[in-house]
Amino acid sequence: MPRKADPNVRTTLIDVAARLLAEEGPKALSTRRIAAEAETSTMAVYTHFGGMSGLVREIVYEGFARLQNHFSRVKETDDPVADLCVHGRAYRGNAQANSHLYAAMFGGESLSGFELTEDDRQHGRYVLASIVGCVDRCIETGRFRAGDAGMVAHHMWVAMHGLVNLELGGYLIEPWTADACFETQLVTLVVGAGDGLDAATASVATSADRYAVELAT
């Protein structure tokens, strides 16, 4: 029997639809299929989202909301480079935990016939604010060379996104595993922004310990 009173039905519908989209493509998205797998009624799709286009939009929004939730748990310390690296770990960890949503968050021009607008994409870009803030502090403390903090943040995003895509696609294998590439990439990115190698290596190591406490538990 459909569980219409389930207070979590909205999130369940999003997760089910995102999983179907990631695993089977747009053809799998029908209100009947989604409702059946979510154990609710087809009307719930319209009640919560107004239809399929609204549901697809909310998949993207939910993906970025979960990413922002990961970022919000990163503590600000007197080591802004370590803070930045914890954000990088949070980005990867969120993608691993929500790979079905991650695929939709960056799904290109169209998702099941629904085109993302500039406003939709701007909704995702706001999560960079905390990254820019970290970079600003890295510059202010002399760890990074003076420059455009927003551009540095975008460089970090591009690099993390590329690694995560390869990891989720199963392309990173021995001896160049995702873990090995990720750790060396963090050091390389930080040094490239102006930090010294020894200081960068120490902050990356610190970020690993902090991530285990702040986000992985």
Task: Describe this entry's structure for a reader.
By secondary structure, this protein is mainly α. It has helices spanning 9-24, 31-38, 43-49, 52-72, 80-97, 99-105, 118-125, 129-140, 149-168, 178-192, 197-214; strands at 110-111, 114-115. The protein has a two-stranded antiparallel sheet. Helix 3 (43-49) crosses helix 4 and helix 9 (149-168) runs antiparallel to helix 10 (178-192). The longest helix has 21 residues, at 52-72. It is elongated. The two termini are 36 Å apart.
Features:
single chain, 217 residues, mainly alpha, two-stranded antiparallel ribbon, 2 strands
- General shape: elongated
Mean pLDDT value: 90
Share in β-strands: under 5%
Element-level helix/strand string: HHHHHHEEHHHHH
Total beta-strand segments: 2
Which structural class fits the helix and strand makeup? mainly alpha
Q: Largest beta sheet, briefly? A: 2 strands, antiparallel
Read across the widest sheet, the strand sequence of neighbours is 1-2
> Ends: how far apart?
36 Å
Q: Total number of helical segments?
A: 11
Helix share of residues? 55-70%
Quaternary structure annotation: single chain
Global Rg: 19 Å
Low-confidence runs of at least 5 consecutive residues: 1-5
Secondary structure topology:
Layout lengths: L8 H16 L6 H8 L4 H7 L2 H21 L7 H18 L1 H7 L4 E2 L2 E2 L2 H8 L3 H12 L8 H20 L9 H15 L4 H18 L3
Antiparallel strand pairs: 1-2
